[in-house]
From TrEMBL:
Keywords for the protein's UniProt record, in alphabetical order: Amino-acid transport, Cell membrane, Membrane, Transmembrane, Transmembrane helix, Transport
Keyword Transmembrane helix: yes
Membrane topology per record: Multi-pass membrane protein
GO cellular component assignments: plasma membrane
PANTHER family assigned: ABC TRANSPORTER ATP-BINDING PROTEIN, BRANCHED-CHAIN AMINO ACID TRANSPORT SYSTEM PERMEASE PROTEIN LIVH
GO BP annotations listed: amino acid transport
GO molecular function: transmembrane transporter activity
Transport keyword on record: yes
A Pfam family assignment: BPD_transp_2
Record localization: Cell membrane
Transmembrane segments: 6-29, 41-58, 64-86, 147-167, 188-213, 219-239, 272-293
InterPro entries in alphabetical order: ABC_transp_permease, BCAA_transport_permease
Protein name per UniProt: Branched-chain amino acid ABC transporter permease
Upper taxonomic lineage: Bacteria, Pseudomonadati, Pseudomonadota, Alphaproteobacteria, Rhodobacterales
């Protein structure tokens, strides 16, 4: 019973983190057909900026409660500024090229962002435990569980619901769906496809930064965290179906529970279990669980 409860709690907690870290990646791919390898760099920037801002604020001796406002503000500022810089300064010149070339370009951006974080914040670790520590813990079937983890789960559900509502029940969302299905026809109908690309990329980078900022109070923020998250996020969106928001949520749950079960039952296969699940899913559904196979253009 104890192990079962622990698996459920850790599974949902890890799934929430994975969804927040990967949903921006799948959104960008769904609209722009860009596998944004630099997504891990935006995650790292969000984590570093939040940890740094929390550290500065807590030194003033003011109430910890305001750090819960600092976290999203730091993510939004970093996501918007860097997202606009990368999309307007580089990616817009690459539209229309092969997807493989876009992968190489975004990988180069990722390497640049990795060095940028080191130039700004150095190579020492940042610890911003105060927001998670201040909320305390709650006892669940005899297991002390941080309330902050439940907060992240709630935010992940809210983000998923907000994206679903925005895409399916707003005029802008419906126009975006038109762009997703056929960008050439969309442009012919007078839809500003370039503007939709810019906004989508900025939203995706902001979501990536938000994932990092929310994770900062639970980890030691160190160089290299972006590389880890891009690998995990890629596994999530491949399992769920690249470009599918709902698929990212289901993929995050699958990967989250696979990881939680392996950690509690047989820790040596923690990473292996994730890629085993991905291999099994792709063997049955080569395009992921919720993605439709695209017609091949000749």
């Amino acid at each position: 019973m104890f192990t079962t409860v622990a698996i459920i709690l850790d599974g949902f907690g890890f799934a929430a983190w994975l969804f927040l870290s990967s949903v921006g990646l799948t959104l960008i791919y769904g609209v722009m057909r860009i596998l944004n390898i630099s997504h891990g760099g935006f995650y790292a920037l969000g984590a570093y900026s939040a940890a740094w801002a929390i550290g500065l604020y807590t030194q003033t001796g003011n109430t910890i409660a305001l750090t819960y406002l600092i976290i999203p503000v730091a993510a939004i500022v970093v996501g918007i500024l860097t997202g606009l810089l990368v999309e307007r300064g580089l990616l817009r010149f690459m539209y229309g090229h092969e997807e493989v070339l876009m992968v190489l370009v975004t990988y180069a951006v990722f390497l640049i962002l990795e060095d940028v974080t080191k130039l700004i914040w150095g190579t020492e670790s940042y610890v911003a435990y105060q927001p998670a520590f201040w909320l305390g813990t709650v006892d669940v079937a005899g297991i002390p569980y941080t309330i902050y983890k439940f907060l992240i789960i709630g935010i992940a559900v809210a983000v998923g619901a907000g994206l679903y509502w925005g895409l399916n029940h707003t005029r802008v969302g419906k126009l975006l769906l038109v762009v997703i299905h056929d960008r050439e026809v969309s442009a012919a109908l007078g839809i500003n496809v370039t503007l939709f690309f810019t906004v989508t990329f900025v939203i995706g980078t902001t979501l990536g930064a938000l994932g990092g900022a929310l994770t900062a109070p639970e980890i030691s923020v160190v160089p290299g965290i972006g590389a880890e998250v891009i690998v995990m996020a890629f596994a999530v969106i491949v399992i769920g179906g690249m470009g599918s928001i709902g698929g990212a949520m289901i993929g995050a749950v699958i990967v989250g529970f696979a990881r939680a079960m392996s950690v509690h039952l047989y820790p040596p296969v923690e990473m292996f279990s994730i890629y085993l699940v991905m291999a099994v899913v792709l063997a049955v559904r080569p395009y992921g669980l919720f993605a439709l196979a695209e017609g091949r253009k000749i």
